[in-house]
Amino acid sequence: MLKKFKKKPTQVLFYVTISGKWEPEIFQPYWLVKQNLIGEDEAESISKNSLLVHNQITSLKFQYCKIHVNEQQIIFQTDQVGFLPQTFDLINGILTSLKSMPASTAEFTIYTHYKLVEFDNSSKFLASIAHNTFWSEILGEYDYSKITVTQKGQKTFPSDITISTSSCPNSKKLLHIYIDEKFNTEEKHSNVRDIQKILDKEMFNSFNSSVNLINNIANGI
Amino acid sequence: MEYNCEALQESNHHCDEIDSKNSSVINDYLNESSLSGERRFHSLQDNKLTHQSDFKSNFEVLQVWEGYIETIEKDEIVSRLYNAVNNSINIYEFNIHEVSEDDKPLVKPGALFFLYLGYDNIDGTVRKSLYVKFRRFLSFQDYIDEGLDAINNNKQYFDDIWE
After folding, report:
1. What does the DSSP 8-state code read for residue A15?
2. Which of A2, A44, B38, B114 is the most buried (most CB within 10 A)?
3. Across A51-60, A85-94, B2-11, B54-63, least confident range
4. Is residue A181 pLDDT above 60, yes or no?
5. Looking at A152-156, B40-44, B136-140, which range is the least confident one?
6. For residue A182, which phi and psi values (nearest 5 degrees)?
């Protein structure tokens, strides 16, 4: 089960990015119908309202998620925890139908946007979580605008985790929290099947530990 | 399910139109998709960095259940719903008319679905809504057919095995 945000973000986006070698033009709504991943009415609606198909890029918008495909990446995007299970079904279906294609990494990303409560501006919050004297000795007065830390994932598959907190470009009262976990396959010539093993084993765990991290960070804002 | 070739051609035609008339749209999408990391959440508007808010569903989910059809009698469907939030299971009865035309062929005992409760925003009008979306799984019929065709085409090699 996916964890919930203890403090509700004002905006949230979830991404699953699969890197490999793709042919964007095959990702047409009726290809998904043929794979039994969407219905014909849904395909027609996508074709009318939100379809962009080109040999370098495809973009399809569903009610619950959006897919961008270029020659290097397939990016699945949704804006609500409640839509993640249905998005996972779509990801799994698409990857199963492309199981022999070369693919190298799987990346799970959560981006959240919070309104500060405890702090009157995001720089003060960022200073409180990364207090040091290095910059004050060099610069005197300064403001933090972004703090990024990286960590090696301790899971079945090796991963690199990036945690970034930054001021919103629109307002100092708003804060962005971004967590990205990137898994590389250990195989030299990896394909989608290798990526699916990572997804099966790590996707829910990765999102849950990211939500947990965000809850801990948001607890202090 | 039939492969809708005409519709595919229509969408290809649509693609050609985009190619010739709206190349800036494609360039925008290419820039957007090739972005990696946190930068992909922002865009430049009037020389000011702003939120991209790329995807926003018109349905705000309040609660989602995972469902499983137990029995179907005429148009009445009896199902079990699993609520992952409190780990509870409930019986839920609904009518086949509540299922979209797209999903009706999927309605059979054992079929899995999501039941969404939330707010639907249609052209600015927001109303509370409950809808059923059946889960779809990859069709393996093509692979099975290909495999059977291959066996039939190479029948001589399999005769010994069958015997």
Report:
1. E
2. B114
3. B2-11
4. yes
5. B40-44
6. -115, 125
How many pairs of residues across A and B have Cβ atoms under 8 Å apart? 156
Res B143: pLDDT:
61
∠ CA A149-A151-A155, nearest 5°, is 150
Q: Name residues whose C-beta falls within 8 Å of residue A177's C-beta, 6 or more positions apart in sequence.
A: A9, A111, A112, A113, A114, A163, A164, A165, A214, A217, A218
Among B32, B38, B85, the residue with its CB nearest the CB of A178 is B38
pLDDT of residue B50: 63
Using CB atoms, which residue from A37, A80, A93 is nearest to B57? A80
The enclosing domain of A105 has a CATH number of 3.30.530
**Chain B residues with CB inside 8 Å of A70's CB?**
30, 33-34
Residues of chain B with CATH 2.40.50: 59-134
The answer on pLDDT for B132 being more than 80 is: yes
Instruction: Determine the distance in angstroms separating the CA of A131 from the nearest CA of chain B, rounded to an integer.
Output: 23
Q: In terms of domains, do A108 and A214 share one?
A: yes
CATH number of B59-134: 2.40.50
Structure tokens of A99?
Answer: 């199981």
Of A108, A88, A203, which Cα lies nearest the Cα of A161?
A108
Is A54 contained in some domain? yes
Tell me whether 0.95 is exceeded by the ipTM. Answer: no
- Strand A103-115 relative to strand A146-153: parallel, antiparallel, unpaired? unpaired
Enumerate the β-bridge partners of residue A148. Answer: A164
Domain contains A41: yes
What is the distance between the alpha carbons of residues B22 and A41, in angstroms, rounded to a whole number? 26
The pLDDT of residue B9: 42
